[in-house]
Amino acid sequence: MLRIVVGSYNPAKVQAVKNAFSGELVEILSLNVLSGVQEQPFSDDETIEGAVNRSRNGLSESDAQIGIGLEGGVVETKHGLFLCNWGALTVRESSDVFIAGGARILLPDVVAKRLLAGEELGPVMDDFTNRAGIRKKEGAIGVFTNERITREDMFSHIMSMLVGQYEYKFGQQR
What single-letter DSSP state applies at residue 134? Predict the structure, then answer.
């Protein structure tokens, strides 16, 4: 049985990993590991680094064969501040690290200004929506897409790309 560790307790992230491996004989663990980046990553590079670190740290703190890191961040462009989301799949018995990115959406100015002032997206979204735990549910992407795409959906898409790369590399056909 393949053991997989998710470098987070976040329910949306853990469920995305479960979705990617549904119907397969796997054991999925979740561990709260360090991302090694700011609480609010502020670039694609920093968000990727957080995902890779979570996947590697999960492996180092478990006996799993595969480590998964999923990280959300923001990236500043000339058009404004966008959400960005990245994932990494690390294989214990090789040097392979697979990386994939997800959907992007422009954040409203009222939210972007608070992030640029140093706040983190999760608490800003809780305040913005007057609800608690947005990051563990639909996420900012769910709020701003009227839940047509939720955080779990977005990370499930990233997981499909990660697992597909892993299968391609190691010759596993569907």
Answer: G
**Two tokens, residue 167:** 């299968």
Place of tokens 């329910």: 11
- Cut 0.90: pTM above it: yes
Instruction: Count CB neighbours of 174 within 10 A.
Output: 4
pLDDT tens digit sequence for 127-167: 999 999 888 888 899 999 999 999 899 999 999 999 999 99
* CATH classification code of 2-106+151-169: 3.90.950.10
Where would I find the beta strands (DSSP E) of 12-151? 26-30, 66-77, 80-91, 97-101
Residue owning tokens 């703190």: 61
Name the one residue in this structure whose structure tokens are 């004989």.
25
